């Protein structure tokens, strides 16, 4: 198959889209961009430098994108707030499009990849899971990182983030009309990958040699 493979993956927080994106990228040998980390880095840089998020968006460095503090839940909430700012989104657009346009293709995950960043991607997934399942996953992740999360609070924060990410005017979280919906509520990461690969194989996308 010679078509350049761009895989666009969208979905709400803790749906499993990041894990699926990493696994698909590794399966097909493609570079992967977690676009949420860009919005997280903007929120972190804005708070560290004491500047407006649209200013911070013009100051990002590679080190910002690798900062372990990006994974903090508070930064996830702050990222969701700066992501509603159209100037921030506009400043991050070109970097994401250039990443997607690399010669060999790419896998990108976020909220608006299939709708705004890569509307012509030949493969799009919209990954969902119930709020309960996503809460369980996030609680597990936070515990694994040594935290002591309060489940009702984690659930309320996910709900708030869903509302903000889906309700904003600019590039809200939406499934592209041509996205394949993958509900991972009752799936582990292996099964989600297998379901995604089966869908892609049906469209003619297989790893070279398999
Ligand atoms: O995927 P994540 O939890 O790391 O994303 C953090 C926030 O960034 C998310 O709540 C909304 C925003 N975001 C966005 O608006 N558009 C994207 N393509 C990716 C993330």
Description:
The chain has a single domain (5-202), classed as Rossmann fold. It contains ten helices and five strands; from the N terminus they run E-H-E-H-H-H-H-H-E-H-E-H-H-E-H. It has helices at 17-28, 36-49, 53-56, 62-65, 73-82, 86-100, 113-117, 131-144, 151-167, 189-202, and strands spanning 5-10, 32-34, 105-110, 123-128, 180-183. Helix 1 packs across helix 10, helix 2 crosses helix 5 (73-82) and helix 8 crosses helix 9 (151-167). It is globular. The chain binds 2'-deoxycytidine-5'-monophosphate. The site of 2'-deoxycytidine-5'-monophosphate (DC) has 14 residues, from helix 2, helix 5 and helix 9.
Structure described in brief:
This protein is an alpha/beta fold. The protein is built from ten helices and five strands, in the order βαβαααααβαβααβα. 2'-deoxycytidine-5'-monophosphate binds at residues 13, 35-36, 39-40, 76, 79-80, 83, 110-112, 161, 165.
Which characteristics define this entry?
alpha/beta, Rossmann fold, five-stranded parallel β-sheet, 52% helix, globular, binds 2'-deoxycytidine-5'-monophosphate
């Amino acid at each position: 198959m010679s078509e350049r493979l761009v895989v666009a993956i969208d979905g709400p927080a803790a749906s499993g889209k990041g894990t699926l994106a990493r696994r698909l990228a590794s399966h097909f040998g493609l570079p992967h961009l977690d676009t949420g980390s860009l919005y997280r880095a903007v929120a972190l840089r804005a708070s560290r430098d004491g500047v407006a998020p649209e200013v911070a968006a013009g100051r990002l460095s590679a080190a910002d994108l690798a900062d372990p503090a990006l994974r903090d839940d508070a930064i996830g909430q702050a990222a969701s707030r700066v992501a509603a700012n159209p100037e921030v989104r506009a400043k991050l657009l070109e970097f994401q499009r250039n990443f997607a346009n690399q010669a060999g293709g790419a896998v990108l995950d976020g909220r608006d990849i299939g709708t705004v960043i890569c509307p012509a991607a030949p493969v799009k997934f919209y990954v969902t899971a119930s709020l309960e399942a996503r809460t369980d996953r996030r609680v597990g992740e936070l515990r694994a990182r040594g935290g002591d999360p309060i489940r009702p609070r984690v659930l309320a924060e996910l709900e708030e983030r869903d509302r903000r990410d889906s309700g904003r005017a600019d590039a809200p979280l939406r499934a592209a009309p041509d996205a394949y919906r993958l509900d991972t509520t009752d799936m582990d990461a292996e099964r989600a990958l297998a379901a995604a690969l089966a869908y892609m194989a049906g469209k003619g996308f297989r790893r070279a040699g398999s």
